[in-house]
Every structure is written in C-alpha cells, then in structure tokens.
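Need tokens for this chain, all 216 residues.
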Amino acid sequence: MDLLIFPFGGNSRESACVVEAVNKLCSSWNFIGFIDDNADKHGKEFGNYRVIGGRDKIADYPQAKVLAVPGRPDNYYKRDEIITSLNLPEERFATLIHPSAEIGIGTKIGYNTVIMAGVVITSNVTIGNNCVILPNTVISHDTKIGDYCMIGSNVSVSGGVTIEEKCYIGTGTKIIQEVTIGSKSLVGIGSVVIKNVESGSVVAGNPAKLIKRQTL
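Here are the structure tokens for all 216 residues:
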C-alpha cells in the first residue's frame, strides 16, 4: 500500500521509523515520501526518503494512504484545522502501530493515529482519530483518549482516565486513575496530575497546578 506522510517534521520522521519497523516484519507499506506546505522543505531528505512536494502531490497518488501528524506544544490545538484542510475522506488515512507496541484486549484505535515503539495499551482502551502516541508510554485499562490528542513519550496514564479531544500531554507526565483532562488542555513535561483539569487549561508541576487558561 502506498503511503504519504504530512507534514515534514519530528512526528513525521518518527512515523517513518514506524513504517520501516513494520516493513521489516512484513512488507506492508510503499512509503513514497513526505509532503509539506513549506516549499523551502521540498527536496529535503530523511534517510532514503524525501519531501516530494506540497499537498497537491496527494492528487498524483489517488490510491495512497495519508498519515497526517502535525502538531507541537505551540499549535496542538490547531491540529484539527490542519488535518481537515487536506479535504480527505477518512478512508484515505492510515493508522500505524509499531510492532513492539502491546495492544490489549478490547482496545479500539481510530484512523490517522500512530502508536510508536514500546507503547503499552492495556484493556478496553479507546484511542480516537488523528492521535499521536510517542514511544514508551503506558495507557491503562478503560481509558478514553479523544480525537486529535498528542501524548508524549514515557507518559503513564492510570486506569479509567478520560483525556478529551485536542489535548497535549507532555513527556514524562503521570496521570492518576479516573482523572479527566478537559479538551484543548496542555499538561507540561514531567507533571503529576492528581485531579481533574478544566478545558482549555495549561497545567504543570508535581502536583500539576494551573498555569493559565487559554482562549482557543
């Protein structure tokens, strides 16, 4: 199956590593290359792959799947706008799971979601569409992660947690059981979340405390 990855950034390069790991076990993807709206990136290379052009290139490969993984701490709340702007039906999007990830019984994973190396997802977890789960994160039983979320590396999510849509959970965060993280919230690196977080909040620390509220 042909594959394009958008845009050309850290998440996309790590996703290309997932593609290679999958293909080492079973040749599943023909990774054509990256696409990016920034013309200055066109022609840049990463390993054996290159940025082949802008989003107009999608039309040149009508059978190709697309993995769209934009998003950083400063623009995570715009991921839905960026991905939606590609104007692709959901069946055009890929889902990638690194072969070293452990996916438990009853877990559901949405489209255009990438699960990276060493991730452990236990039982009855729901992960929405358009999510990125970075390496070595553990997501425990009965947790629900909404659409357009980004979960950093080495995050520990206890059982029964709800992370609503468009959240960013920083690397090394720990979230205790049955906590709710409201939509469009950002949890800073290394935080320990022991109580609910209201929508649109930026929290950080051990225990995590409110830094500011955002109007998004």
